[in-house]
Amino acid sequence: xxxxxxxxxxxxxxxxxxxxxxxxxxxxxxxxxxxxxxxxxxxxxxxxxxxxxxxxxxxxxxxxxxxxxxxxxxxxxxxxxxxxxxxxxxxxxxxxxxxxxxxxxxxxxxxxxxxxxxxxxxxxxxxxxxxxxxxxxxxxxxxxxxxxxxxxxxxxxxxxxxxxxxxxxxxxxxxxxxxxxxxxxxxxxxxxxxxxxxxxxxxxxxxxxxxxxxxxxxxxxxxxxxxxxxxxxxxxxxxxxxxxxxxxxxxxxxxxxxxxxxxxxxxxxxxxxxxxxxxxxxxxxxxxxxxxxxxxxxxxxxxxxxxxxxxxxxxxxxxxxxxxxxxxxxxxxxxxxxxxxxxxxxxxxxxxxxxxxxxxxxxxxxxxxxxxxxxxxxxxxxxxxxxxxxxxxxxxxxxxxxxxxxxxxxxxxxxxxxxxxxxxxxxxxxxxxxxxxxxxxxxxxxxxxxxxxxxxxxxxxxxxxxxxxxxxxxxxxxxxxxxxxxxxxxxxxxxxxxxxxxxxxxxxxxxxxx
Length: 514
Fold this sequence. Notes:
Elements: E1 2-6, E2 10-14, E3 20-27, E4 35-36, E5 42-44, E6 66-67, E7 70-71, H1 72-80, E8 85-88, E9 112-113, E10 121-122, H2 128-138, E11 141-146, H3 153-164, H4 170-177, E12 188-191, H5 204-216, E13 227-234, H6 238-248, E14 255-262, H7 279-306, E15 313-321, H8 340-355, E16 360-366, E17 376-379, E18 382-385, H9 387-394, E19 401-404, E20 406-408, E21 412-415, E22 418-421, E23 423-429, E24 435-441, E25 447-453, E26 462-467, E27 487-488, E28 492-495, E29 498-503, E30 507-513
Parallel strand pairs: 3-25, 5-8, 5-16, 8-11, 11-12, 12-13, 13-14, 14-15, 15-16
Antiparallel strand pairs: 1-2, 1-21, 3-20, 4-19, 6-7, 9-10, 17-18, 19-23, 21-22, 23-24, 24-30, 25-29, 26-27, 26-30, 28-29
């Protein structure tokens, strides 16, 4: 027997395999909130496994269609979801990365050992020029993570000047000799990565001092207007945020990061499988991913204490699902398959980011290709788009939209010792003038009947898409027809000032109102 608990409806139980959960919501279209930054739909690509090599870079001599060595199929797919920003070169890799290894003639670049990720050889064939070419091809802004853990402020300063100087100094001339006349656009720079861990095992007090030292030589000016991002906390560790915000202040940094990954088990030693998981593991995964809301609330409360003007942004610049690697693959390459569960996790997090849009001004899923919760998986010349990719595509209308309050109380569903909301949702006014409503049904079995009071919004037409599948671990297989992709949503009906939605189990729905 399964029970559903809701604050407004009490507890009810049934024996049937599936049922319909009913709920109501009220949209306040006349009370617009902050902008939902397009940057919350950002990507993260680290030199890790096949994330860069094979996933993005195949070389100019490859038989795989490419433009200056960068895969055409991957570029086209990422352009289609309007990737706004991409973070590079790490991750843990960033705090060992020497930027000079990755410039100049490729056949003369040194080969290094990638100590963090499987001991694989790092050829440096993909360096600064190649990264910016990739970002420009997909139409994304660049977010650099600079080496604080094992480098110096001079290394940082010289890299930024090499990339951005418009003058006749030696670094600008060197960039031109390497094939780039005009400066690169560098809108975001992260000063260190996970400095509490792989970025140097620092205390927050020590990192605060290191950050202050590095940013003093950052020389933020017209040539280098980049947002300065401080290395932030691991998940719920608000002490890190508190110390850094107190010791650095809102005049020396423009944003601070936080990292939080979803593990089905909550145990880093045995994280759980990407496929073949149980119904209980589905609910455990949803439980852990929904903690993002609490984590953001707590960090924002600390930031508000030190920065009541809300100058400093909160960047969730690593997030996503993290499972045990696929059998037979290098444990250091973090290759995992991607199912409908991942798409539901992604959409649930999007709705949480929207809720905190006033502070959360960027998020970067880990990672773009072939690593962790990837948009794309490749195998030689073959490529497949994952369910997570399609969740991103469905939410494109929310980029730079205006948040609209949506009052809703989701009944709880219980499985084992987990009680989670049956769904989450968000609403916004898009740049095209339409009002968009996104609903993520977090249950495995139960349809959702949601009645939305539209208030002052006069809607004449509704249309949308739904992403779901019969199996909770359904995936798109390499070389086969896609089975998990959006289709036209037929479960929406306008009736006077209300919108009735019939949301299938384990699904993502986005509708637009005109």
